[in-house]
From TrEMBL, chains A, B:
<keyword id="KW-0238">DNA-binding</keyword>
<protein>
    <submittedName>
        <fullName>LacI family DNA-binding transcriptional regulator</fullName>
    </submittedName>
</protein>
<dbReference type="Pfam" id="PF13377">
    <property type="entry name" value="Peripla_BP_3"/>
</dbReference>
<feature type="domain" description="HTH lacI-type">
    <location>
        <begin position="5"/>
        <end position="58"/>
    </location>
</feature>
<keyword id="KW-0804">Transcription</keyword>
<dbReference type="GO" id="GO:0003677">
    <property type="term" value="F:DNA binding"/>
</dbReference>
<dbReference type="InterPro" id="IPR000843">
    <property type="entry name" value="HTH_LacI"/>
</dbReference>
<dbReference type="InterPro" id="IPR010982">
    <property type="entry name" value="Lambda_DNA-bd_dom_sf"/>
</dbReference>
<dbReference type="InterPro" id="IPR028082">
    <property type="entry name" value="Peripla_BP_I"/>
</dbReference>
<dbReference type="InterPro" id="IPR046335">
    <property type="entry name" value="LacI/GalR-like_sensor"/>
</dbReference>
<dbReference type="Pfam" id="PF00356">
    <property type="entry name" value="LacI"/>
</dbReference>
<keyword id="KW-0805">Transcription regulation</keyword>
Length: 337, 337
DNA sequence: CGGGTTTCTGTAAACGTTTACTGGATGAGG
DNA sequence: CCTCATCCAGTAAACGTTTACAGAAACCCG
């Protein structure tokens, strides 16, 4: 665990200058003899270049960041699964930031860009505040935001159409003859919470159904919160015949509660989730869910970032991923294998 | 996106030397006046220290690594969930390496330690080869290995008792009156595959049951492979009344196949998984599973690493996490809420 | 007010690379 | 054989910090 060899060590052993060592190691033209001596000295010493020194000089860290609220959430996991291999293939390491639903933490990550320990960042912010926008504008490294940002924000952006996603789900439930369609949301002051709430409120009238606020219940984006919210909703509105849940975790909670209450899914109550995570096919009955294209969003974000890294002066780009309804047993009662 | 301010910029603006700037920023004693001027200059300029320069000088990167085969696997996810907050609380960033079941990749990660971009590493190796051992010995930064390593290996080590875990599960199934207990394993040339295979083979005789190789089937540690393996096993041994699966994903595959074959779980076939991941409570029926303490292992590994970082000369330590059987509906038919 | 402490600040070196510049050696062409 | 171009290799500076050292300033006390 002693100090490792540096190019100076190599230079001494090979009897050349450190410049020659550097040149050989970087594949610049050198006399065959010098090259041979340097290479074998390097091999014998087990030389590995020091990344801090390299970064300091080259002004690149060969690291990229991904920041999200909570690694436990399968949505982010789906993104990471796409992002990691792309980063790796492009020669970048992945630095992970889980901000734990803490806004100050998010800002810290953005400020951290100034330390230049990463060459770029993909972030999925919970909210986009004025402070976020300031940091985006001042950032000294490229940023890709997953989630909507105001027009003109100087970052690449990947978004989905929540409105359409909710419309797909509600339309599906309606087409199945359901008329009392409950909605279980997460906190409405988050980006997805707000979008999904608004979308639900406008999807019903579009189908000729009244918007009934007592069919809406809010918890958090987790299974147990979802279960509690559904329990409240069921008590208040015992005649509901369908539930749209703002994510799959909430939908799992719904399944738990409905099962315990003796309601059959989907015969008595049809249940649909959102995000179409891996959990959807593990649940029983398998969960109908609106895919918000998490994997695609991850991939698109990584591609945008990598592209910008070798073309810094491009105009910011917006990629929109289309939601897609994945129908499974929890609404139709037929198993899709 | 232009070049950021450095301590030199600050020094000029504040009319002091760079040494004073550095001292103020590091909280070393300074005259109140100098301090005020430096701080306000730093604030006005939006100064953020350059991490490469800092690392180069201080020989620490403030980054720690976690390397595993596949981020998609919920076992590793459970570990990350524990590791990340501990690292963060100790002031370290997390660099993630998913080696994609590629051994050369694992070795690369170990070699990367020489670049000193991380101050330490937690690794969950697939196999521990001679080359691994060489790298461990030569490593210039502390390593914690999750999974067994030979006695005397100079790394901290967190392990579980697979033998006992399998014994718990088999014992449970036996106590429920099951006598034809199949075993669905992953590749036996991996660390967990080998351990679990050996453990199964010795658990049965200990209970007075014969070890019947035709009750064993091998696939991979994934759901679809598991399903295929179970299908083969069922065809060959239609009278089996219990299945032990070497991880939860395989067990999920087993549930799929059994359901499709019209076998009731647990009445006809009791199913137990291993690892007790989140999936176990999402599955239906909820999965009895042997917890190998993934979360604890993650936590223990992080603690060992952090401890070693401020006490480098300590003898290598081994922490063993006890497996624990978590009984759920897939073996007893009673739901645990 | 002088000597000795104490406290603060500046100069300069160092961390391990990369790279512009310069000079020496070699080879080609006249 | 001289000139000039070409090719390599070495010297030194630079990247942005931290820190040992030395000097300056301030203070205390007799």
């Amino acid at each position: 665990m002693s100090d490792g060899p540096t190019i100076t060590t190599i230079a001494q052993r090979a009897g050349v200058s450190i410049a020659s060592v550097s040149r050989v190691l970087n594949g610049l033209p050198t006399k065959a003899d010098t090259e041979r001596r340097v290479m074998s000295a390097a091999r014998e010493l087990g030389y590995v270049p020091n990344s801090a020194a390299r970064s300091l000089k080259s002004r690149r860290s060969n690291q990229l960041g991904f920041a999200m609220a909570d690694i436990g959430n399968p949505v982010y996991l789906a993104m990471i699964r796409e992002i990691q291999p792309l980063f790796k293939a492009a020669g970048y390491r992945l630095v992970l930031h889980s901000t734990n639903v803490d806004e100050a933490d998010e800002i810290d990550v953005l400020r951290g860009l100034g330390e230049r320990y990463i060459d770029g960042l993909i972030m999925v912010p919970l909210r986009v505040t004025a402070e976020h926008l300031n940091m985006f504008a001042a950032a000294r490294a490229p940023i890709v935001i997953i989630g909507s940002v105001p027009e003109g924000t100087p970052v690449d952006n990947v978004r989905t159409d929540s409105r359409k996603g909710v419309r797909l789900a509600v339309g599906h439930l309606h087409a199945l003859g359901r008329r009392r369609i409950g909605f279980v949301n997460g906190p409405v002051d988050t980006v997805p919470g707000a979008a999904r709430s608004a979308a639900y409120a406008e999807a019903l009238p579009a189908l000729g159904l009244p918007y009934d606020p007592s069919l809406v219940e809010v918890g958090d984006f987790y299974r147990t919160d979802g279960a509690r919210a559904v329990a409240r909703l069921l008590e208040r509105e015992p005649d509901l015949d369908a539930l749209l849940c703002a994510n799959d975790l909430i939908a799992l909670g719904a399944l738990d509660v409905l099962r315990r209450a003796g309601r059959r899914v989907p015969q008595d109550v049809a249940v649909a989730g959102m995000d179409d995570t891996d959990l959807a096919t593990i649940a029983w009955p398998a969960l109908t869910s609106v895919s918000m294209g998490s994997a695609e969003r991850g991939r698109a974000a990584a591609e945008l970032l990598l592209d910008r890294l070798d073309n810094g002066r491009r105009a910011p780009r917006v990629v929109t991923v289309e939601p897609r309804l994945v129908v499974r047993a929890s609404t139709t009662g037929e198993e899709t294998p």
